[in-house]
Specification:
about 110 residues; mainly alpha
Length: about 110
């Protein structure tokens, strides 16, 4: 089974990208690594649920179920990404404040 996955990766040509992502994940602090892992898993879940909800051979009820799963997953992913963005903005703001740049001292256009 491992050989099947390796062959698949070689066919897609994404092995270098996969390895770089894995190395990057290993270097991140544990909490940040956990967030990135959650984002990765949620994106994979979105991809899988989208495939399911677009299958014409499934019944309407099953497709409806997968559409709900897709919607809920997207909401969770958006919440996590919004939190990450807010943390990034806070970090940038602290850096600006440490440099002595505030709203009052920034140049106007």
């Amino acid at each position: 089974m491992e050989n099947d996955r390796l062959e698949y990766k070689e066919e897609t040509g994404n092995t270098g990208l996969v390895e770089r992502v894995r190395k990057k994940r290993k270097r991140l602090p544990s909490l940040e690594r956990l967030r990135h892992e959650l984002v990765y898993q949620l994106r994979e879940s979105l991809r899988a649920s989208q495939e399911k909800m677009n299958k014409p051979e499934l019944s309407l009820a099953e497709r409806h179920h997968w559409t709900q799963v897709h919607t809920y997953t997207a909401q969770v992913l958006n919440t996590i990404l919004r939190d990450l963005q807010l943390k990034d903005w806070e970090k940038r703001l602290k850096e600006l404040e440490q440099r002595g740049l505030t709203y009052k001292t920034l140049p106007t256009r």
